[in-house]
Amino acid sequence: MQMKSLKMTLSALALSATCGAAVAADSLTITSWGGAYQTSQDEAYYKPYTAKTGTKIVQEEYNGEAARIRAMVESGNTTWDAVDVDAATAQQGCDEGFLTPIDYSKFGGEAAFVKGSTFECGIPTIIYSTIYAYDADKIKDGPTTIAGLFDTKKWPGKRSLQKTPFGNLEFALMADGVPADKVYETLKTKEGVDRAFKKLDTIKKDIVWWEAGAQPPQLLASGEVVMATAWNGRIFNANKVDKKNFKIVWDGQLMDYDLWSIPKGVKDLDAVYKFIEFASSPEAQAAQTKYISYGPALLAATPLVSPDILKDLPTAPANAKTALANDPVFWGDNKEELLKRFNTWIAQ
Amino acid sequence: MAVAALPGEAGPDVDRTSLKTKLRRAERVNRARSFSLVAPLLLFVLAVFALPIGLMLVRAVENTEVRETMPRTIAALDGWDGQATPGEDVFAAFADELVQTQKDRTTALVGKRINYEVPGARSRFLKAGRLVDAGGGGPWREKFLAADPEWGSVEFWAIMKRAGATFTPYYLLTSLDLRQDAQGAVGRNFADQSIFVDIFFRTIWISLLVTLATLVLGYPVAHLLAILPPRHANVLMILVLLPFTTSILVRTTAWIVLLQSNGVLNDILLALNLTTERVQLIFNRFGTVLAMTHIQLPFTILPIYSVMKSIPPSHLRAARSLGAGPLTAFVSVYMPQTLPGVGAGCLLTFILSLGYYITPALVGGPQDQMVSYFVALYTNREMNWGQASALGAILLLITLALYALFNRLVGIDKVKLG
């Protein structure tokens, strides 16, 4: 009961904060994934945009819960003007009607972006990747392949994985010997899913689950786990800002897009588009790579990225040799079942 | 009033009646006045407590998704005998309504509802939506069957028909690890989806452990508080109450700092050579019960303390003077008198523990998550509010049942908070 009232107070405070913001003229509320990634957006997009136009940006954080967007839209009070979503949510938001279809003519058409990254209800902003990393100060002879994540004999200790089937099933299959281009084909069969869960079973007791993107670098730094899956930019940032010596294993990395989406029912659609147009300019996209190692989704931005950053991007040729590209259609179709099974499995 | 209006009545009688009326009126005004003082709280409780719980209970059985978006398909299914694949009339109505749901972007939502009971239905609905969008007209039965033979499944249409009912037992059954097959018979749910009964037992078990731990740790503290001279008792009382001044999140996070593998406690254990390697103290049952016990301690201590405070010290002295040893006097004279406080403290802690969410989420592992975690999961992540409500409703029922049991065994009138 105490928790509930605490939560209610918190959400009431948050609500009044956002309401207050919505009333104030010339402000936009933008929701993203927090931590180092949101900081990079603040530096590359929000601050310059406010400086240029005077429009205040109110920042909100979430962990990718599509339900929060849907609940807001259904209640008829859309307070988030733009949300940074992953590809699966962009697909789901369109299917279930809580995101606005995008007018790509404002962005130079779909051809201006990396092929396959454009969605009906989302404009791609970055290419990120889910990788796993370890602390090179603690492990000298570290793993180099995705199989190392599951090898508790050679590298004993806890591992941290994201609390979602997304990514973990792919990693499990690749570690079990399925080549990257056969992963989704395998996952489409019941036997394939069984195989992935069986592989995950082998390390289940060694897993510490994470939910927020800022957790894996912390868990690695505290020594709570010996290796952790993470979004590559968070590891890059821990190395750059906190002077850590984390090493990324690029083998079997899972590439995906983050997209700007607009919830249905925003007050001023034009103002939101104006912001996204600014954030989708080559200069702003290239500027973001100074703060976090995510690849720009806008083709025109790539030539502007400094060469010493290029090698840390998921798309760098040396990193992308065995990369697997996320299949949003697969996840759009199968998310429900896999989430259900995953959540049952994890609680058992 | 009617009596007063009668003609020819004796004077005193009329007066008495009007006096009664006046008195009643005065009382009514008084009652109204005192009620108006209570009214804000009553309205508040109704609005933020009774109403949401009522809505939650409705949501646990509500079944609007299919009924509202596909009424004609459901009507067409009324005439279906359930023996073989339905005829063209059902498919035509279905295709017709899919056109509309495609326009409203609700196809996925209907699909999602059916998906709970028929795995894979959501993507099949989306594909059907695209098929209808392509146009071309009927006959739809052949077209659907050609696209995916699963559309011919009798079981699917039986579940579709059932999903059109006003209320559904689906969520409540699932919360109890039961399922209804196509014929409507209730049986056990599939093994890879049955978790909830375990989780309810886990919730009760963790709550019991926490209650017991707070009692064992808190009883001596309460006793000390009651017998110390006020000067010392006040300091001790502040220590007991101090945790209330810190946010629950801060307290829980502090436990993470203390208990983690490279945390303070492990460092001490290693330095003292009590262990040779670091012990897992967090993200498991131990950490969960420990952190919850810490948070719940004051809730158990305070009712016990206030009851102990009201026990006259002369009782113990009398027992001793009649020849009882210190232990006998304490156990047979003092302890029975503290039971109402023990009952109140334990009941309070137990019921509060049943609803814990943040603490197990932060310091527990996946096997330590309690019912509230799954309510949050279904609300925030899976967007399955029916399931979340059903879990909440059953937790509420369990709480009420345990309360009733407690009342039967101990008697709630014997419980004292002070």
Structural summary, described in words:
The complex is a heterodimer of chains A (348) and B (418). Helix content of chain A is 41%, strand content 18%. Chain A has 13 helices and 10 strands. In chain A, strand 1, helix 2 and strand 2 form a beta-alpha-beta unit. Chain A is globular. The two termini of chain A are 26 Å apart. Chain B is mainly alpha-helical. Chain B has helices spanning 2-5, 11-59, 64-69, 71-78, 88-104, 107-117, 121-133, 140-147, 154-162, 170-175, 196-227, 230-241, 248-259, 264-271, 285-309, 313-321, 326-354, 358-363, 371-381, 385-409, and strands at residues 178-180, 186-188. Chain B has a two-stranded antiparallel sheet with strand order 1-2. In chain B, helix 11 (196-227) runs antiparallel to helix 12, helix 16 packs antiparallel against helix 17 and helix 19 runs antiparallel to helix 20. Residues 1-6 of chain B have low confidence and may be disordered. Chain A binds chain B through residues 1-4, 6-7, 65-68, 70, 92, 94-97, 158, 163, 208-209, 222-224, 332-334, 336-337, 339-341, 343-348, and chain B through 104-109, 112, 115, 119-120, 122-123, 126, 192-195, 198-199, 247-248, 260-262, 283, 351-352, 355-359, 365-367, 369, 372, 374, 377, 379-383.
Top keywords for this entry?
heterodimer, A: 348 residues, alpha/beta, ten-stranded mixed sheet, 10 strands, B: MetI-like fold, 3 domains, extended
Secondary structure: elements and pairs:
The complex is a heterodimer of chains A (348) and B (418).
Chain A: H1 2-23, E1 27-32, H2 35-53, E2 56-61, H3 66-74, E3 82-86, H4 87-95, E4 123-135, E5 159-162, H5 168-175, H6 183-187, H7 190-201, E6 207-210, H8 215-222, E7 227-231, H9 232-241, E8 246-261, H10 269-279, H11 282-288, E9 295-296, H12 307-310, E10 324-325, H13 328-347
Parallel strand pairs in A: 1-2, 1-3, 5-6, 5-7, 8-10
Antiparallel strand pairs in A: 3-8, 4-7, 4-8, 4-9
Helix pairs in contact in A: 2-11, 4-13, 5-7
Chain B: H1 2-5, H2 11-59, H3 64-69, H4 71-78, H5 88-104, H6 107-117, H7 121-133, H8 140-147, H9 154-162, H10 170-175, E1 178-180, E2 186-188, H11 196-227, H12 230-241, H13 248-259, H14 264-271, H15 285-309, H16 313-321, H17 326-354, H18 358-363, H19 371-381, H20 385-409
Antiparallel strand pairs in B: 1-2
Helix pairs in contact in B: 2-20, 4-5, 5-7, 6-7, 11-12, 11-15, 11-17, 15-17, 16-17, 19-20
